[in-house]
Amino acid sequence: MKFLSKSEESDLREEIYRSGADNSMLKLRLLNEQKNFCAYTEKFVVQGIDSVEVEHFNPSKKDNDDYLNYYATLRSANERKISKYQEYQESPFFQTLFFQKSEEFQGRIRYDDFVYEAIDDADIDAKNLIDYLGFNDDYLFGERIRHVERLQDTLRDLSEGQKLDYFRRYKRDLSFITAIEHAFQLDLSDILNEII
């Protein structure tokens, strides 16, 4: 997952979510920082069409939290996560926030054949995070497979350069970007950096 990292230099570090207030600017700024992707699903968000919320990673901190607890997510991803909170509310990842450091996340969680898994089988905290955020929930797993298979059919006879050009042109098709990079053996970070 590419959009869980948080930046020490973010302009959003001083932003405050206010219950009952209009938080639409915070949501737009989070989406901008996340390059228009849902932080929990890696689906590309189509503004004005997709239902997106300012999500509080740890719901117990709502109304007393900050940038480190905020993400822009699809409403459905937020609702699935909320349903699992009771089970995971004592998990250490709420304190360590290891997933907010890209290097640490990649050192503990890997993606392989459409599935996210803990690198170390004894890393219960990483396993719990994967389940809490629903990385491998059936619907998301199936959607990831179908999306990549459709792209494989569409891009079958194209060179690497032509595939990169395709993704530059059709940014919506970058949903599940980790799965795309894995399936096509592409590095799409330059294209991600172009998204404003």
Q: Spans with pLDDT under 50 lasting ≥5 residues?
A: none
Give the overall shape, derived from the CA principal axes. globular
CA distance, first residue to last residue: 19 Å
Task: Give Rg in angstroms.
Answer: 17 Å
Mean pLDDT across residues: 94
Number of H- or I-type helical stretches: 9
Q: How many beta strands in the DSSP annotation?
A: 4
Order of helices and strands: HEEHHHEEHHHHH
Return the structural class: mainly alpha
| Main sheet record | 2 strands, antiparallel
Q: What fraction, in percent, of the residue positions are helical?
A: 40-55%
Per DSSP, what share of the residues sits in E-state strands of 2 or more residues? 5-15%
Side by side, the strands of the main sheet go 1-2
Give a structural overview.
This protein has 196 residues and is mainly α. Helix content is 44%, strand content 9%. It is built from 9 helices and 4 strands. It has helices spanning 24-33, 75-88, 93-96, 102-108, 124-132, 138-155, 160-169, 177-184, 189-194, and strands at residues 52-56, 70-74, 109-112, 115-118. A two-stranded antiparallel sheet has the order 1-2. It has a two-stranded antiparallel sheet with strand order 3-4. The chain is globular, with a radius of gyration of 17 Å. The model has no long low-confidence stretch (mean pLDDT 94).
Features:
196 residues, mainly alpha, two-stranded antiparallel ribbon, 4 strands, 9% strand, globular
Helices and strands, with pairings:
Elements: H1 24-33, E1 52-56, E2 70-74, H2 75-88, H3 93-96, H4 102-108, E3 109-112, E4 115-118, H5 124-132, H6 138-155, H7 160-169, H8 177-184, H9 189-194
Antiparallel strand pairs: 1-2, 3-4
Helix pairs in contact: 2-5, 6-8
